[in-house]
Design goal:
Two copies of one chain form a homodimer.
Chain A: H1 3-6, E1 10-16, E2 31-35, H2 50-55, H3 64-71, E3 75-80, H4 114-121, E4 127-132, H5 138-144, E5 147-150, E6 170-175, H6 178-188, E7 201-205, H7 206-209, H8 216-231, E8 236-240, H9 242-249, H10 268-296, H11 304-313, H12 319-337, E9 341-346, H13 359-379, E10 382-391, E11 394-402, H14 407-417
Parallel strand pairs in A: 2-3, 2-4, 7-8, 7-9
Antiparallel strand pairs in A: 1-3, 4-6, 5-6, 5-10, 9-11, 10-11
Helix pairs in contact in A: 6-14, 10-11, 10-12, 10-13
């Protein structure tokens, strides 16, 4: 496997043939790649870390999500590199390698589904699957200039997928075009017909765009224009201060407000939201893997090591409040969106950071990223990353968020809108 | 303690004086009673079963909910009898005694917060606290002809309260009048000012009233008239088929549809909802108490014994789907209610059943009861039981359900409406 051809996306290149029984399976002829977090019968799932690989045995069955894609006629071309234990949104793996960002080779590809995003971005496969706990589909999609879909929490099976933090874990997918994105969705959501419905309203979270270094209009205008062309005046376009709305409607966030959440260039309620997300994530990660980490004492790369140590030290304090925040946010956003409303936010705070950037320099970027990512992350709503080409030679994107369970609606909508973007 | 004076409500009569430090505490002069599920420092919490009492030691601190009532100036007059391990909505305790229903002495008082409801219904205290997992506040309130409030899931502390099933456990309270109900709410919700807001709409779940043996108009008309008198034409009154709406908007319920859910005199989606609730409840109960039950082999009364055995046998299968149903229902009902909408349903399928009724004869009643109770139970929304006097000499009630987190709104609303009921 020559690095130059493959952008370092794969950890294992080996074909798995489709098992389709019908004469015209819906994904016939399409190729895909599988993040090294999904079980494939007879293979040890690597979870991004060599010590994990060494201490685990081969899977005795294939994750249902993988099987259903093979049954739908798709061919897997291999298993992709991921961040260690899915604990990063950067995409840099110190043990294996960092997959090369196909549109910005001096920038990180984004993680933790790094190889899956790169494989699609570089055109090595038609689509790929990954997981998204805190942003692991949405971020690499944005950084690699492709579409990425994080479904509503709980609607796509996570059986046979190594858990990270179950309150947030989702299985998501990447594609270069919205047709493929939707076709894969149709299989994984088990919804054969995804028909387009007009959105009732497009809500622009104006304050959230202030967290992003890309000029607002570059991100907002393409979709606003497309909504206008696609649905005429039928879709109301509203602007709002999302942070303020969340502050008012998620009262338990007050328990996560600190001096840090009051600093400049941040939205206090979203900072508190992301603290609550990170706390529950650490707690569930510890419940899942604390024992393994303590007994095996695995070697981790920079950044990952500190993060995992922090997770292992976490107590159960405030965990009930984290769950209450989830319920309150889900209620608040469901009420805000109503039937068929969509929310527009930046996916990330800007273009992909440089490779091997200093951790401290990245801190403010990471903090703003999690403010944005925790909106769908904590509520469990579905979110799609929509690439908007290059700005100053770097990939930029915007995101749409829709109600829990409106996955088919969101995939159809983005397919519809893409005609005018 | 003479049974005749106390309706058998208390398991222990002993005064705990208020600890109020302010000069004018909000619950000054009020007396209350505590379900035997709340920890009181130095006392063994009984959880309704003598073997539990025997095998547990004294609590080292008092549940914060109890402390906050004492701090607000209320005086506790004692600890009340409850159903064994909170695993019944009947109120019959074979080990201690069945508290006497103060408005229908040949009928069950309802449970599991039986003694707390009876203590209020009989006028022994001004208010009382209990818990509601599957209906343990709402049902005894209805059977004893008093107000009962089940708050939104997670908003009132359950610290120092013996758990039954955490996904559903809530701390609730009883009162004879809406002023007291609201005053207690103000303390427990930590919201000093509960101001009334007009409801935007009152949704009558027409199909749900078909599950109830009491003529529909007797339950629906008092509140409709009061809404009209209180808010003029500002509140829209809508009728709907709630079962159909839930069927369409909670797709995961299909995994809980069986031949049983298709039978006559039932609403299939609500039957499926209650199956999902009962499954997750059993699973969490087993996680909490399975080991204790297996090792101690406690003696249980009729009905309870079978129910606990069934819980101990349950596997983890479908548990993820139960949680998904919760999220989908919360989303669906939040969307339906919008801002300040309220839903009207019968609390229970009819007046309280006879004492020591045959289990088989009660099966259909129980099944319809859980169909109704699972609406707020699974979604985590708040619900208030509103007594509507006697019909054919037996107490009847209706319930209002409001959005998660709208507890203050619902308490103020019922206080407002009570003037014209």
């Amino acid at each position: 496997m020559a690095m130059s051809n493959n952008y370092g996306a794969f950890i294992e290149k080996s074909t798995i043939s489709p098992t389709a029984s019908s004469s015209c399976p819906s994904l016939k002829g399409l190729t895909f790649a599988i993040k090294d977090i999904f079980d494939v019968e007879g293979r040890v799932t690597g979870f991004g870390n060599p010590d994990w690989l060494r201490t685990h045995s081969a899977a005795t069955s294939t994750a249902p999500v993988v099987s259903s894609l093979l049954e739908a006629g798709a061919t897997s071309l291999g298993i992709t590199i991921m961040d260690e234990m899915a604990y990063s949104i950067n995409g840099e793996n110190a043990h294996y390698r960092t997959p090369v960002n196909p549109v910005a080779s001096d920038r990180v590809p984004g993680g933790s589904s790094s190889g899956s995003a790169v494989a699609v971005g570089a055109g090595l496969v038609d689509f790929s699957i990954g997981t998204d706990t805190g942003g692991s589909i949405r971020v690499p999609a944005s950084y690699c200039g492709i579409f990425g879909f994080r479904p509503s929490h709980g609607v796509v099976s996570t059986v046979g997928v190594t858990p990270m933090a179950q309150s947030f874990d989702t299985v998501g997918w990447f594609a270069r075009d919205t047709g493929t994105l939707k076709q894969v969705g149709s299989v994984l959501l088990q919804q054969p017909d995804l028909n387009a419905t007009e959105p009732s309203q497009l809500i622009i979270a104006d304050d959230c765009f202030k967290l992003c270094s890309v000029p607002r209009d570059l991100l907002v205008q393409p979709l606003v224009k497309s909504v206008d062309k696609s649905f005429g005046g039928n879709t109301v376009i509203n602007k709002m201060d999302l942070g303020e709305y969340i502050q008012e409607n998620v009262p338990s966030l007050k328990h996560f407000m600190t001096s840090e959440t009051q600093q400049e260039f941040c939205i206090p309620s979203l900072m508190a939201l992301s603290s609550s997300m990170r706390l529950l994530q650490r707690y569930e990660f510890k419940m899942n893997h604390g024992e393994w980490v303590s007994s095996v004492k695995p070697e981790f790369g920079p950044g990952i090591s500190e993060r995992i140590e922090e997770a292992i030290r976490v107590s159960g304090e405030k965990i009930d409040l984290c769950r209450l925040v989830k319920t309150q946010l889900l209620t608040a956003l469901s009420t805000l969106l109503g039937d068929n409303g969509v929310l527009m936010i930046p996916t990330v705070p800007g273009p992909p950071p440089h490779l091997q950037a200093d951790v401290v320099a990245l801190e403010s970027f990471r903090s703003r990223a999690f403010s944005l990512l925790s909106i769908a992350g904590v509520s469990g709503l579905c979110q799609v990353t929509i690439p908007l080409g290059l700005h100053e030679n770097l990939p930029i994107s915007v995101s749409l968020v829709a109600k829990h369970g409106s996955d088919g609606f969101l995939l159809s909508l983005v397919d519809c809108l893409s005609k005018f973007i």
